[in-house]
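I am writing to request your help with a piece of structural work I have in hand. I am sending you one protein, given as its amino acid sequence and as whole-number tokens for its backbone shapes. Kindly check, if you would, that the fold set down in the tokens agrees with what the sequence suggests. You will find the record immediately after this paragraph:
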Amino acid sequence: MTVDYFPDYIGRQTVAYTAVASAAALLFDFCITFDSEVRWTWGRKWGFTRIAFVISRYLPLVSVGLMVCYAVEGTDGRLTNYGKLAVVFYSCEYIHFLGAFASEVLLALRTYVFWGCDKRFLMVISVFGMATTAAILTIAGVDSVQGAPDAIHWHRVLEEDRSASIIYGLMMFYELVLMSLTVYKRFKFYQRDNSPLVATIYRDGVIYMLCIALVSLANCFFVFVLPSSFTPLLVG
């Protein structure tokens, strides 16, 4: 049962603070890892992996920046052009989804490499990934039809729908499957291989996927449990 007694302005203010903190953390991470990006990616041939990396690296900067602008201004209701704001905000949602999709592709590619670049494994996780993506797009499409533009109001612009919890649940399930496959491969086939490369790939991969799965779980929880004004809390 949701706790609807929270005033809307408290939720919007909390979302605004979280958006600013997320933007600061993202910029800090970008700055401290920029030299590694230049060393390992710049000057390399463009391919599927590099395109996915660039999308997942730079699109979140745009998405979080837009979220900060509209979340902060939404705390005092200064914006009056709600229709234009809704279009821009939904564009921000699509940018966020594309960045998240690219990140999931990188996770799948990492797992594929850890499995020895097995073509059969690539086919299986590709089908699984496409099925998960199709389910997410179906839910998002139904949600967009229900939230028609002529029914958009200010409270609707800065609120995510409850169905977003299902989307984040599907993403968490996908990430946990990839993490489980990595753990299985490590203890089934690399149990006696104590080389630093295998240990580093396994350790960093599992920690990274576990963190992303926990963030998806937190998103799912906030969207489903808290009042609607709190639901974009971790979207950025």
